[in-house]
């Protein structure tokens, strides 16, 4: 009986440790428009606010992206451009150009169906949400 319990426990653990479902590399490909931004004054009371902006990001099949509006800037302005590469496997955007200058910074990206959230390296918390167009 003890052996049966150990065997059952091992099978249960092995089944629970299954492979995570991989995200297809083309899932981000297309145009994404800024729809809301999150700014926190540093006390945890921040909220997402809807914005009317022409800022957008275009992801390409080759792992590169460009943006209308500087992706390094959390604000909704569509002035400036950014470009760089992205990786679905580690959910980051490697930004090569920010504000017209070489940058080489990583920005965290979370994908939820037709919504991506980009988290900026802010101490007080800041993020932008983009919706697939």
TrEMBL record:
The keyword Signal applies. This is Lipocalin-like domain-containing protein. Keywords: Signal. It holds the Pfam family Lipocalin_4. Residues 28-107 form the Lipocalin-like domain. It comes from the Bacteria. It comes from Echinicola pacifica. Residues 1-18 form the signal peptide. InterPro entries: Lipocalin-like.
């Amino acid at each position: 009986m003890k052996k049966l319990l150990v065997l059952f426990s091992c099978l249960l653990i092995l089944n629970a440790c299954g492979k995570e479902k991989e995200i297809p590399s083309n899932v981000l490909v297309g145009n994404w428009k800024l729809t809301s931004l999150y700014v926190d004054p540093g006390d945890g009371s921040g909220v997402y606010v809807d914005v009317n902006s022409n800022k957008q990001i275009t992801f390409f099949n080759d792992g590169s992206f460009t943006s209308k509006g500087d992706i390094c800037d959390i604000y909704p302005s569509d002035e400036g451009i950014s470009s760089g590469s992205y990786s679905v496997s580690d959910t980051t955007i490697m930004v090569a150009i920010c504000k017209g200058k070489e940058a080489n910074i990583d920005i965290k990206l979370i994908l939820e169906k037709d919504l991506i959230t980009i988290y900026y390296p802010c101490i007080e918390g800041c993020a932008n949400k983009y919706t697939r167009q």
